[in-house]
Amino acid sequence: MALKITVIGTGYLGATHAAAMAELGFEVLGLDVVPEKIEKLRRGEVPMYEPGLEELLHKHVAGIEGSSGRLRFTMDWAEAGEFGDVHFVCVNTPQRHGEYACDMSYVDSAIASLAPHLKGPALVVGKSTVPVGSADRLAAYLAEHAPAGADVELAWNPEFLREGFAVEDTLHPDRLVVGVRGERAEKLLREVYATPVAEGSPFMVTDFATAELVKTSANSFLATKISFINAMAEVCEAADGDVAKLAEAIGYDDRIGKKFLRAGIGFGGGCLPKDIRAFMARAGELGADQALTFLREIDSINMRQRGRMVELTRQELGGGAFLGKRVAVLGATFKPDSDDVRDSPALNVAGQIHLQGGQVTVYDPKGMDNARSLFPTLGYADSALEAVRGADVVLHLTEWREFRELDAQALGEAAAQRLILDGRNALDPEVWRKAGWRYRGMGRPTA
Ligand code: UDX
To answer: Ligand 1 centroid vs 312 CA: distance in angstroms?
Structure first.
């Protein structure tokens, strides 16, 4: 009989994972403690913008016409405990307020709520990004609190999905990493992931600690790549070099690779910034803090880019105060194809200029509602053209495709001044210069 799967926490990761598990053919029950989320999901509505996810929900959520009916949602822990052979824990682990360490309270409370309802054999699988050592601690907790005792096992299976590609990354993962202690856990996870494994996704079996570390070290490496190229951008600017050409040239070396070498205002979002900080904090607790002091530098190079964008804007506007200057900001989300504005470099830059007296008008294809609720005092426009109308400068801060396809000529007629600063080095300088704009990228020559 096919495995029954529960997914605990139906945010970004969990909603996608639940829908993907239904797509792979399993009976799935998603659980969340937020009633509004559950109600929305039951109607097949996605709590955030993620390409392809809504279609997948409609294909499987029970009660929706024509669906497979394999995916249901609940708020009842007893129902979840009874239903699942495998329970995936997908709750978030944000940065703790005022500290670098991550907040484990959602993971801890999910495990504590589930444990008393595990009355028969079950596998609990952690997917959340956690400090190394957590799986060990949670396994001990389950052994003590689950009525089924030793019949309840734990595994750690980190998730590597990228926002904007979440469905694709979940259905066709570039690798599967499972930290296990026993053969039964491995066997069950091989069953869960049989389809992607048959399609060629590598399946790696490790111990708990290694599985936990794979996730934090992968994100640290990605953050390092971005900060490396941003550091090169700073040097290029000082030496009159071109970081875009430099990145292309070093990228031909396949030991280096071309990806994740786009210089600009740096990384943000709900993962990379908090994950490198939590990793430093955990290494400190383990007495290995020296090994990760470089991440402090990675973090500060990254945060510095936001300030550099503000200063570049000031300089291009003549060097004085922002008072009375009209600034159009294209992009509010931390990356394109997402409505996520958590720790968004774009909103950070917009906010800094606004707080220094600039009149900022923001437009984003999908992030307007989230941006408005996080930063209600900024100005907002319904289109790129409206944001640009009357502007003294245009800042391109999130590289949506829509912005690459803008009509530079039409925008030039709407703007007060043809001045565009590309905080993502993603626009074609030639196109803009031909339309009479002064174009400045980050770490790129003036003309
Ligand atoms: C990241 C990891 O990629 C993913 O594997 C992990 O599971 C979660 O964290 P995500 O947060 O969705 O995913 O974003 P990602 O695509 O990694 O981008 C992070 C940030 O880096 C964005 O703000 C993006 O604009 C920025 N970035 C990316 C650059 O500034 N330059 C680049 O070359 C690439």
So the answer is: 24
Ligand 1 pocket by C-beta < 6 Å: which residues? 159-163, 219, 222, 226, 260-262, 264, 266-269, 271-272, 334-335
> With 80 as the cut, is the pLDDT of residue 169 above it?
yes
Clarify whether residues 218 and 114 are in a common domain. no
Residue ending a domain, choose from 187, 206, 225: 206
Tens of pLDDT, residues 85-134:
999 999 999 999 999 999 999 999 999 999 999 999 999 999 999 999 99
Q: Given the CA of residue 275, which atom of ligand 1 is nearest to it?
A: 9
- Same domain, yes or no: 268 and 132: no
What does the pLDDT read at residue 67?
97
Nearest CA to ligand 1 atom 17: 162
Q: Is the confidence at residue 356, as pLDDT, over 90?
A: yes
23: tokens are 């797509």
- Starting at the earlier edge strand, list the strands of the sheet with 419-422: 379-380, 359-363, 326-330, 393-396, 419-422, 438-441
Yes or no: say if 156 and 125 are a contact pair by the CB < 8 Å rule: yes
Annotated binding site: 32, 37, 93, 129, 160-163, 215, 260-264, 268, 274, 335, 342
Domain that holds residue 87: 4-206
At 1, is the pLDDT very low, low, confident or very high (cuts 50, 70, 90)?
confident
DSSP β-ladder status, 86-89 and 122-126 = parallel
Give CA separation, 427 vs 3, 151, 339, 418, in Å. Answer: 48, 56, 21, 15
Closest CA to ligand 1's atom 26 = 267
CA of 74 to the centre of ligand 1 (A): 32
